[in-house]
C-alpha cells in the first residue's frame, strides 16, 4: 500500500494533520486559516467531531499563526485553553491570530466555526518560540 503525500502545512510536514484531513488554506504574518472537512471517523459517540480533534487542529493553526511567514521559527506549545461552545456537525473553518510574538514567547487566539458560521470552539495559547538552525532540530 502506498501512503499518499502529506500536504504542505505552511512549510511543514505534519502527518497527524494529514491523517485528520486538515487543509491548510492561508497564512499571513500573524494569521492562519485551515479547513477541516467533516468525516465520520473524526466523530465521538454522538456523531459530533471529537473534542480532541478540535483541540489538535486549533493547536496547529494557532502555532501556524504564531510562526506566520517566518519559516526560521518553530513553536512548542506551553499552554492552551479551549472552550467548546457548540458541537462540530459540519465542515469546519479554523482561524487564528498571533496577538504578540516576542523573542521567546508568542500569544495567540483562535476559533472554529461551522459551515453555517456558528462558533464551535475558541482557544487561547502560549507558545515557546524556537529559532531553527540549519541542520538542527
From TrEMBL:
Q: What single Pfam family name could you report for this chain, choosing any that match?
A: 4HBT
InterPro entries linked to this entry: ACOT13, HotDog_dom_sf, PAAI_dom, Thioestr_dom
GO MF annotations for this entry? hydrolase activity
EC number(s) stated in the UniProt entry for this protein:
3.1.2.-
Q: Where is the signal peptide?
A: none
Specify the enzyme's EC class, one word: hydrolase
Keywords, sorted A to Z: Hydrolase
Q: Which residues form the Thioesterase domain?
A: 47-121
PANTHER family (alphabetical): ACYL-COENZYME A THIOESTERASE 13, THIOESTERASE SUPERFAMILY MEMBER-RELATED
Report the sequence similarity comment from the record: Belongs to the thioesterase PaaI family.
Recorded hits in NCBIfam families, A to Z, give: unchar_dom_1
What's the protein here called? PaaI family thioesterase
Origin organism of this chain? Bordetella petrii
Amino acid at each position: 500500500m502506498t501512503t499518499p503525500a502529506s500536504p504542505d502545512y505552511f512549510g511543514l510536514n505534519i502527518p497527524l494533520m494529514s491523517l485528520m484531513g486538515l487543509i491548510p488554506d492561508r497564512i499571513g504574518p500573524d494569521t492562519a486559516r485551515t479547513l477541516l472537512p467533516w468525516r465520520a471517523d473524526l466523530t465521538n459517540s454522538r456523531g459530533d467531531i471529537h473534542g480532541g480533534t478540535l483541540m489538535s487542529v486549533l493547536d496547529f493553526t494557532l502555532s501556524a499563526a504564531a510562526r506566520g511567514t517566518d519559516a526560521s521559527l518553530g513553536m512548542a506549545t506551553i499552554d492552551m485553553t479551549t472552550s467548546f461552545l457548540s458541537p462540530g456537525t459540519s465542515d469546519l473553518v479554523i482561524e487564528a491570530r498571533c496577538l504578540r510574538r516576542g523573542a521567546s514567547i508568542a500569544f495567540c487566539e483562535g476559533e472554529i466555526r461551522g459551515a453555517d458560521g456558528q462558533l464551535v470552539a475558541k482557544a487561547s495559547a502560549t507558545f515557546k518560540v524556537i529559532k531553527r538552525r540549519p541542520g538542527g532540530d
